[in-house]
Amino acid sequence: MRSCGFKWVQSTVWNVEKGERPLRAAELKALADYFGIAPASLWASEEANQVLINLRQQKQVLEGIEGRLADLLRERVTAQQDYLAVRSYVQDYLGEREGGLTQSEADEISALDKWLSEHLALSVRQLAERARERAEQGFAEDGMNVEVH
Question: Which domain holds residue 91?
Answer without folding.
Answer: 61-141
